[in-house]
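Q: For a teaching handout, I want to show students what a protein-ligand complex looks like in token form. Below are the inputs, and the small molecule is zinc ion. Please produce the holo structure.
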Amino acid sequence: MTQFVLSKARVAPKATKSLARLELIGALMTARLMDYVTTALERFKFDSITLWTDSTVTLDWITKPSSSWKIFVANRVQEIHDLVGSSVWRHVPGKDNPADLVSRGMTVEEIKSKNEYWHGPSWLQCDKSTWPSLKFDREPMDEEVVKEAVKLSTNVAASIIDPCVITTRIGNYQRMVRVVAWIMRWRYPANRTPESSLSIVELENAELTLIRQIQHRHFENETEALSHGHEIDRGSKLLPLDPKWDNEKRVIIVGGRLQYANIPEEAKHQIILPSKEAFTGKLIQHYHERAHHSAVETTFSNLRQKYWIIGGRKTVSSAIHQCLPCKHRSTKAMEQFMGPLPPERVRIEPAFTHIGVDFAGPLMIKNESKLEKRIAMKCKTGGRMQGINEHDVTRRAHASHRVTATTRRRRG
Ligand SMILES: [Zn+2]
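A: Here is the structure, written as tokens, with zinc ion included.
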């Protein structure tokens, strides 16, 4: 015997949603309704519970783990699993579905006479083996199902791309991203394209893959909570940033207060990055070099257009302090340490006790209306200067004697 207990119908929301998604919402309503009924009838013991849907797409979604799907489907599938489990769902052919009577609309008089509404399809009263069956794991999956699937290639690639290994092996940020992009292209045949160079999309995906891994390692609880639409823990260090989950990029972003500003979307909600991470250091270095080894403030402000690094300015400053070209430029040149002055220059003694002769020049001297090169000779202590021809060895010797004689005369 079968008996009607409770039914519920809802008008489709105004916001445009695909038919498959509406069917999924319907399945979720069924699960909630079943939970309500079993709670209300708790004194009855149920051997088994079977739920029915006429949507094969919804069945495909429900029979696989929620992590296989994108966020909208994943959240609803997860709730259905939590409420009723995944093993109780079966397919009802559209023509036998009594729920369609509600969605098509009917007068009270008409529905009173509809036996299938009050007791279900006729086969429901027969043995389970006669119920219609559907093989869920058939291939290929419905286009609608595939559309919602999380790109597995990215996920599997992500699991083999460990940022720790990549960052320790590759020093340059751009090269690091390119290497990951190549791995992601060639690891999976579906990603392979005949183009010889990497596209912007591939590079962005590679960067996001690295960021996802890093966020998952540093903010595991937050990622888990936000990706499932839950609040983060009150003790989380990300709480002041009002973090949000970016459904498209699947990363944690800053909530912020700039949603009405007319600036690029990524500048309003920057991607959150941890400070103590080699990847972050390389990213800072990349921005620093891209701005021609700019100062801390410029690098920091350029980074803020897209990323929110925890402990931002301090992290940027310490990363820039390790930049080798900047270190070379800012280091002071070595200066020779001056030795002590010789005793004859520092002791108090009569004038001309010590004299020295020094040559300097050449200086250009005008002699009878023509310029000549002359070497200046200077008596170190006397300050006397004589100009002599640079080739004239004899006159140079005489000049030296003259200085000595003059000095003796003065001292004597
Ligand atoms: Zn630098």
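A: Two things your students might notice: The chain has 19 helices and nine strands. Residues 151-218 form one domain.
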